[in-house]
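Progress report, Aim 2. The chain analyzed during this reporting quarter is listed below.
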Amino acid sequence: MANTEEGRLLTRAQRGDLVAYEELVRMHQQRVFAHCYRLVGNAAEAEDLVSETFLRAFQHLQSLRADPSIIHWLLRVANNLGISVIRKRGTQPMVDLEEVGERPSETPTPEEELLRSARRDVVRACLDQLPVKERAAVLMFYLEERPLEEIAKVLGCGLAGAKSRVHRARHKLRALVMAELGEDLPFGQEKGADYEDATN
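Predicted structure tokens for the chain:
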């Protein structure tokens, strides 16, 4: 475990070194926040989820293993906490995505920017209609570009379950967007071929 910088920090933290634990938090908090923010669509709630995630990490410090990284454990806790927040809220959040499947020109015209903004709003609304676990899977796969093996660890399911959730979410999202916009999602096309190869 101690052969990596993370492993060495974790070993020190488990021996009571709070500075080492703070370094671990700094190492992973940005990625945990990004995942929470995409999931719940609210910066304040995402910050709360990050704080709760690292509090739980501290409480379970002695059982954590950097094999290969504690990030999988952190993301799984954050994901479960985020799902609980959404279910308690009783409504689906607006997923805040700066760009969804777009390759904008360097200097878009006002008309192009208006069209992109409207398109993003539609895709956000369609994402919000997905079941929360499927939304988490498709966000991790396409936007965070995480491998299926890691998604499975975060979601607490097998590799086949992760593939199934991404597959279902992608097809539901494409159908919803097609119904609203009459077009497919470019980001789905780009990574979709890789996904099909992985599932065949």
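DSSP finds nine helices and no strands in the chain. The radius of gyration is 18 Å. These observations will guide the mutagenesis work planned for the next reporting period.
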